[in-house]
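2024-03-11 09:14:02 INFO receiving multi-entity request
2024-03-11 09:14:02 INFO entity count = four
2024-03-11 09:14:03 INFO echoing inputs for audit
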Amino acid sequence: MNSLAAVPHHHWVISLVCPDQPGIVHAVSGAIVAARGNITESQQFSSADTGRFFIRLQVESPADRAELEAALAPVIACYDMHATIDVVGRPVRTLVLASSAGHCVNDLLFRQHAGALPVEIPLVLSNHSSLRDLVGFYGVPFESYPITDAASKAAFEARVIEAVEEHDIELVVLARYMRILSPELCERLEGRAINIHHSFLPGFKGANPYKQAHARGVKLIGATAHFVTSDLDEGPIIEQNVVRVDHSRNPAELVAIGQDEESRTLSQAVKWFAENRILLDGARTIIFQ
Amino acid sequence: MNSLAAVPHHHWVISLVCPDQPGIVHAVSGAIVAARGNITESQQFSSADTGRFFIRLQVESPADRAELEAALAPVIACYDMHATIDVVGRPVRTLVLASSAGHCVNDLLFRQHAGALPVEIPLVLSNHSSLRDLVGFYGVPFESYPITDAASKAAFEARVIEAVEEHDIELVVLARYMRILSPELCERLEGRAINIHHSFLPGFKGANPYKQAHARGVKLIGATAHFVTSDLDEGPIIEQNVVRVDHSRNPAELVAIGQDEESRTLSQAVKWFAENRILLDGARTIIFQ
Amino acid sequence: MNSLAAVPHHHWVISLVCPDQPGIVHAVSGAIVAARGNITESQQFSSADTGRFFIRLQVESPADRAELEAALAPVIACYDMHATIDVVGRPVRTLVLASSAGHCVNDLLFRQHAGALPVEIPLVLSNHSSLRDLVGFYGVPFESYPITDAASKAAFEARVIEAVEEHDIELVVLARYMRILSPELCERLEGRAINIHHSFLPGFKGANPYKQAHARGVKLIGATAHFVTSDLDEGPIIEQNVVRVDHSRNPAELVAIGQDEESRTLSQAVKWFAENRILLDGARTIIFQ
Amino acid sequence: MNSLAAVPHHHWVISLVCPDQPGIVHAVSGAIVAARGNITESQQFSSADTGRFFIRLQVESPADRAELEAALAPVIACYDMHATIDVVGRPVRTLVLASSAGHCVNDLLFRQHAGALPVEIPLVLSNHSSLRDLVGFYGVPFESYPITDAASKAAFEARVIEAVEEHDIELVVLARYMRILSPELCERLEGRAINIHHSFLPGFKGANPYKQAHARGVKLIGATAHFVTSDLDEGPIIEQNVVRVDHSRNPAELVAIGQDEESRTLSQAVKWFAENRILLDGARTIIFQ
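2024-03-11 09:21:47 INFO inference complete, emitting structure
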């Protein structure tokens, strides 16, 4: 690595997905060598479920994007790869949707502000106005539009779509946004919208999961970050956490206890997305930590 | 407490359940004082769901059972209490049902043998013969009867009922017994049969939960110990544990990983039962740790 | 309890500590009955280490403080009790000390603001100015005084003492305040100052615990909230949490990972303190959850 | 991969360690291609602390060991690698040392017997006779020699050395063996002896860690599996687990609670060792899970 020290170089993150077969790693690493790269992080996975091979690399190299792409192009073609190439640490343009609860929004904004979350948040959209000051404190534009009927809901979603295009949004985060997205919007955002559900899915889908959890008497409650799909609470799971509770907790206390798990689970999922660590293998996620 | 030191005394565990109202603790503690007792452990819970009050006490006293019962009788009558009085540490007569997997049976027998589980196991019944040697090593009688059809299943259950009476069984433990109990047997054993389910209920009820968990791509797998009811996998939950897994685990590996959680979760539930720490509040359990 | 419903009543929290002996619970519950109280929560502990008995009660009663104190006075005298009587949910006046890191301060302020932490924070004092805006957003006064030498440190501590008296402070929270308090200040604040140490004590005392943790190659890192004493990092432990890490994490990453544990551990400790749930038994804490 | 299906092939595990530099992965994967191998699992790590590069591969190939070694030889020479090549799943010859506590020994033997731990245990040596029956049940030879003085300790250790040679032992497991090994024996077994310490190291080194933990009032207790070195309780840490406890637990209860963590932590460490997943980077371990 010393040989690289004197040359200015970039830090790339590369994800490649293709049908599994022998020789892939050799071919890919050959292209990296050709692009004068040094692999600083590497994870791979061969899926027995789908027969696909997944690899994520971080590579330091003096090569620019054109040179790197040129080196990888024959390999990508030969192995029929789906490839993404990005710069490590580039902030991902993220639209946040919220309602009245502020714990997830606060957690995302604080981490972003502290440099712990590589996202850029050009806008927070909410169907309540209660988070205006908090969002404003972090210098992020905030718009709220009450949702009271089908028309106002459609208008809200139209504004979402507009904002996605206006700000070239790469990720939409539902930070305890309490309205169900329309199937059309779910489809349009597929693979780039993350929701936090306040239960340990697949237990307690739908509304009032903490009330359900209390009624069922579970001993652990949890939170699940997952990709949004039109099949409610059924999207690919990204991250889950649980916390122990006992019989003495009423539903309101479960809500309070669960908020910590919601915040950290959602922020973790967003971080992994922003770092290109999440790949999809059918209905399952591969997380390259 | 020094005043008690010279007198031989007993260690009692007392559970009382009644409609909640002011004055219960004072009345109960008065009876304990009357029975020359010292409270060494005490937990109580007032259920907002059912309006019932639950208290569990451990009491050291030179009084014998008759004296203790006499002291408590007026309080029990006055407050319309359901009461149980037992000796701390008395081994609970436990029948174990098993199939071919040995991890839960091994864990129960090892702990019992090591003095860590206050149960007495007069018999293990299985629909497989594979655990004969393991059970025999611990000096516990073992009987196996293959279940191949309705008749052999009925015969097996008849033997269970017979054994329960023959050995005055207080607790039946389904230690990865892989057959569904008949509704009649479930009802007969209600409140005194504990099952270990190999998922984090209410997720993944029914068969092959690890296969379901793999398909759904959950990030934590778990185990649930619960009372057996005729409503499959819906009985009151006693204890749950989870362990983190990632995308690289296939269903067979999930099975192996989950076994540790199954063993410890079941043994914990059995220990609490044997220590009279589990009370029922509708469909929920109260665990007085 | 219905009989109480029509009368306006208070919710009291009572802590009592005394030498252990039979009859305490009966005497205390008798006083509660006399004060027309209903016990809604109760925990007790008899310490084998020190021979002391600890009880914490929550009591609903139409009685005012004078009536309640009058009812308890004979019991307190008879059993030589140390007693505290407070109102459930009363915000505890809390002074926060900070340096440049904002995660703990943000967590405390957000929770306080959201109604999840029963404290009132009249002032944040810091030896850095970097948190001025954050603290200001929550409407809390903020003062910073750089500490560069012995004199400026003494001046800072003099301001702490002054603020404690000025605001009638009940709790001082060191929210990643990175200066060692003088022995005199430690002594003066004994039992009412909580620090968050960024390691799983007693491992890695002193400076740079994450660097130490990396060098030692531990597989879990943690945080410890403890009472401040003049014996550095040796005060009674209130709460601890850990999180799994692996060999790939460098010290800077451990710092980032550990911050979540620091925030939640400190906030938990502050919450328990504010709810009168922490009692001292020699060098150990009793936490009545 | 279908092309390999008709040919009988082996499953190899390869570990390579060398000074870090660009091109290693390409060179290694080239050798794997040359040996007609398919990489089924791969992890790598570049240590910023020591400048060394670590890679572990699992490779399916019709090649025999000679062909595989021939393919790798030039790469190993060129990059100055330390290499180990083994067959996936080969049972590692393991000598177990024990004292009177049986929980770790039981856990190891049960897992080995159940096919969950790829070790072969030709002998258990103990300074107590109490585990004779348990070990015998699993068909493993057992020898006990009381240690009462320096001479009997030296004789015990001489028998350990003899057994290591006699059975060509690759791993020595101290399964709650309660005697300190002599520095000479520690040195002789360096890198191939694993101990379980009953605390969360580096807290509570030395004797009676649970008593120390109680005195210090920690809120989590733990267990640490580590390589044995002559510097007591200072060897490289392999795995750690903790479990929550509260003020009510006395030292004897902590001992009982901690046993579960000890068993699972030690078994996990042994499993990783047997699967060639542990590499040493100075005083730290790299665990390729």
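2024-03-11 09:21:48 INFO post-check: The interface with chain D takes residues 1, 3-4, 20-23, 25-26, 29-30, 32-33, 36-40, 42-44, 46 of chain A (CB under 8 Å).
2024-03-11 09:21:48 INFO post-check: Chain A has a mean pLDDT of 95.
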